[in-house]
Design brief:
Distance between the termini: 28 Å
Number of strands: 16
Largest sheet: 7 strands, mixed
Shape: globular
CATH superfamily of the largest domain: Translation initiation factor eif-2b, domain 2
CATH topology of the largest domain: Rossmann fold
Number of helices: 11
Strand content: 15-25%
Strand order of the largest sheet: 6-5-4-7-10-15-16
CATH class of the largest domain: Alpha Beta
Bound molecules: 5-S-methyl-1-O-phosphono-5-thio-D-ribulose
Number of domains: 2
Mean pLDDT: 97
CATH architecture of the largest domain: 3-Layer(aba) Sandwich
Radius of gyration: 20 Å
Length: about 350
Amino acid sequence: MASPAKSPVSIRWDNGELWLLDQTRLPHHVNYEQQVSAEQLFDSIHQLKVRGAPAIGIAAAYGLCVVMRQWLDASLPEFRQQLRVQADFINSSRPTAVNLKWALDRMLALADDYSGSSSAELHKSLVQEAQAIHAQDQALCQAIGEHGLALIPDGAGVMTHCNAGALATGGIGTATAPMYLAHEAGRKFRVFANETRPLLQGSRLTSWELHCAGIDVTLLTDNMTAHTLASGQIQLVIVGTDRVAANGDVANKIGTLGVAIMARHYGIPFYVACPSSTIDLNTPDGKSIPIEQRHADEVRRVGDYQATVNEIAVQNPAFDITPAELVTGIITEKGLIEPPFGEGLSKLFAG
Ligand code: MRU
């Protein structure tokens, strides 16, 4: 079935070459960059050329295959040791989204379990594993969409924050998946996308990709959230996440917490959409999730415009934690999980 998303794919694996869409240049420039080294991939992830929790996991898995090609003739112990070194390095590019570590751990586990004797053969299996991670993510997005579809009735207004869309995944996104499927089903609804300072994922990415697909989308600056929620135009919020802790606390793009608090104030349901690869039962609660701190210039500048002087102190946390008590439900590929989340999330992994 053709994807209802019409924006360009963020990751391409072409005959053993890894090409990443440079999302920092969207929406005006659609430019793919081939990844040829661990350092380049690290920078691409850190600079948000590839971004969004599932997408950085997929890119890391493929990137590891590219990097390991130089050790095809090495002994298996040396190949495995290098694999671990390179995976650790790539994993250090961003700390919050658990999908990065999840994908790299999956690659390392495959190497640990390999019972053959050839590094080149193991490398082939690693490529297949990266392709499986990519293909599975596409299927997970579709399943999230199917489980979330009923939440968007005709006439609904849906708010989202940041980009948990096709650009952030291998498929039709997480938060956007129910939107794409509702649109495909012919439902009439309206999406309100917060612009998402400092790096404008909402205006540059979410509003653009939904617009490309023909979905009715309205862009808001972040400080219009309360006013718009109060206006009666919004019936539900759906956001993505970079990590869900075992108790249901959720890390997502900075500003999400504010949206959740305001949604609760106005009695509007607040949903989080994610694949199980984003749920981390080893992290007990939101306090234990590492929050990425980014460069001050991202706040001082808006695009190319320097909006203040360099002497002004700046804070730039890239994510915040929404406590489980503000979350109405978590839409996963296996269904909608409702509170109490501790129980629902552990059951998800029980079978
Ligand atoms: O800094 P970013 O752009 O990588 O942040 C992305 C988000 O916060 C997304 O909501 C999250 O990764 C989920 S993507 C399906």
